[in-house]
Design a protein that fits this description.
The complex is a heterodimer of chains A (278) and B (160).
Chain A (H helix, E strand, L loop, with lengths): L6 E3 L4 H11 L3 E4 L5 H6 L7 E4 L9 E4 L2 E5 L4 H6 L1 H6 L2 H6 L5 H4 L4 H7 L5 H8 L3 E6 L2 E6 H4 E3 L2 E2 L6 E8 L3 E9 L9 E8 L2 E7 L6 E2 L1 H9 L3 H15 L10 H15 L6
Parallel strand pairs in A: 1-3, 2-3
Antiparallel strand pairs in A: 4-5, 5-10, 6-7, 6-10, 8-9, 11-12, 12-13, 13-14
Helix pairs in contact in A: 10-11, 11-12
Chain B lengths: L4 E2 L1 E8 L2 E8 L4 H8 L18 E4 L2 E4 L12 E3 L12 H8 L9 H10 L7 H7 L11 H15 L1
Parallel strand pairs in B: 2-6
Antiparallel strand pairs in B: 2-3, 4-5, 4-6
Helix pairs in contact in B: 2-5
The chains are: A alpha+beta (278), B alpha+beta (160).
Chain lengths: 278, 160
């Protein structure tokens, strides 16, 4: 189908974009890469009065390294981030995960900020930010705040952003990362994940996040604890997988039922954790 | 408010080497602009939500799905469609390889495959990597095997 009618606005700066959002609030939707928004418009699942296109705001597309932090502008294209030498060097988990986001045609337009703001429970990037303990800068016309990734994703397709707030950048701490791993189960390459796990070992401490197995991505805290308390890595991994299986509460749907997703999480934990120790 | 609100927008772009400026509805999808406004019907619309790849074109050197791009987003862009890789007579090398290897049956998905391959900086060397590379384009007819061999034929023809 075709999009319903809307008013189109293409602000040339962040401040002007924030003015538009302040004026229209819930009646406006932000257009970043459009790879999630435009399908929603085509399905007529949403009818925004105003669509705010961020494409002209070049400063939102930055990909930078600042000391021990990767700074990704909200409008940085997924394919650009995936290929960037500084990203591959400082945070190899990102390209590993991005490789599974849709297909390259999607990633040529899709953005880091857009994916996060969309907060699809089966999406890779929100889980990556969670496991890397990233922080998100959100601005509105009256100020700005930093939101920890753990506070951003509060429900399916729901973030803690206010309707007049814009994600401007994402900061990922890259210091001390000793290993990272990523795995997901999907019926076809590029499909939304039925279950996925991202793992990071940073200064000896293991962080695990899962996606596709609940309303939001989640840290696998019990699985992490099994790794911390067990001196024997093999045993730790076995126990972590078991813990992961019981700490997730997936909803089943026509693509996979809840039990399958739980078993998949356990298998993915068993698959990813060993990679942190090579 | 200082920012202009519009339901009709003027866009300028280059399509297959031809510069143009048009006023279009803000909600007009790029696939529909190409097909209905420009009469370039080689680009097909399949799923209209970005999963099948039949609508794949090249925008500023990158393969993208024209069904989930607004025409206004292509303002200032260089666009290449399947018409842009077709010589005035006969078939281009890639098209010839598809024809010779039976890489198409109904042909509905074919333009999308051609553009995805044309946009590649490098064609992946292993068949597994090539299948991943082409995974954004769906084909209901061929079972993909002859598409893979057509690409291999094309690559082999290029290097001799």
């Amino acid at each position: 189908m075709k999009p319903p009618p809307f008013i189109y606005v293409r602000p040339p700066s962040i401040n002007e974009a924030l003015e538009v959002l302040a004026a229209h609030g819930d009646n406006a939707k932000v257009l970043a890469g459009g790879q999630s928004l435009i399908p929603l418009l085509n399905f007529r699942l949403i009818h925004p009065e105003v669509v705010v296109d961020l494409a002209k705001i070049e400063e939102l597309a930055r990909v930078d390294n600042e000391d021990d932090e990767l700074v990704l502008g909200a409008m940085s294209r997924q394919s650009v981030v995936e290929a960037a030498a500084i990203v591959r060097q400082k945070c190899p988990l990102l390209p590993k995960a991005l490789n599974h986001v849709g297909h390259q045609q999607i990633r040529n337009r899709g953005t880091i900020g857009g994916s996060i703001a969309h907060a699809d429970p089966a999406a890779e990037l929100p889980a990556i930010l969670l496991v890397l303990e990233a922080s998100i800068t959100a601005r509105c016309s009256t100020g700005s705040r930093i939101i920890a990734a753990s506070d951003l994703f509060i429900g399916p397709f729901t973030t803690s952003l206010a309707s007049d707030e814009l994600i401007t950048e994402i900061r990922i701490p890259t210091g001390g990362i000793e290993g990272s791993a990523f795995a997901e189960v999907a019926r076809r390459r590029g499909d939304f994940a039925l279950a996925g796990v991202a793992a990071v070992r940073r200064q000896g401490i293991i962080r695990l996040a899962a996606f596709g197995v609940g309303w939001t991505p989640l840290r696998l805290l019990e699985a992490e604890a099994e790794m911390t308390k067990n001196g024997n890595i093999r045993e730790g991994i076995t126990n972590a997988a078991t813990a992961a299986q019981s700490e997730v509460h997936p909803l089943g749907d026509i693509h996979a039922d809840a039990e399958y997703r739980r078993e998949a999480v356990a298998a993915l934990v068993r698959r990813t954790l060993p990679e942190l120790f090579v | 408010m200082t920012v202009e609100s519009q339901t009709e927008v003027e866009v300028s772009m280059t399509v297959n080497g031809v510069e143009m400026t048009r006023v279009v509805p803000a909600r007009l999808l790029l696939a529909d602009f190409i097909r209905s406004y420009l009469g370039l019907t080689g680009t097909h619309v399949g799923c209209e939500h970005g999963v099948c790849g039949a609508c794949t074109i090249i925008v500023d050197g990158a393969a993208v799905r024209s069904c989930i791009l607004l025409t206004v987003q292509a303002d200032g862009a260089e666009i290449l469609t399947v018409e842009g890789i077709t010589p005035s007579e006969g078939l281009g090398e890639l098209q010839r390889a598809f024809a010779d290897d039976h890489g198409l049956q109904c042909g509905f998905c074919t333009a999308g495959f051609l553009m995805t391959i044309t946009a590649a900086d490098e064609i992946p060397e292993t068949d597994e990597d090539l299948r991943v590379f082409l995974s954004g384009n769906l084909c209901r007819c061929t079972g993909y095997q002859n598409i893979i061999s057509a690409v291999r034929r094309y690559v082999a023809g290029r290097t001799t």
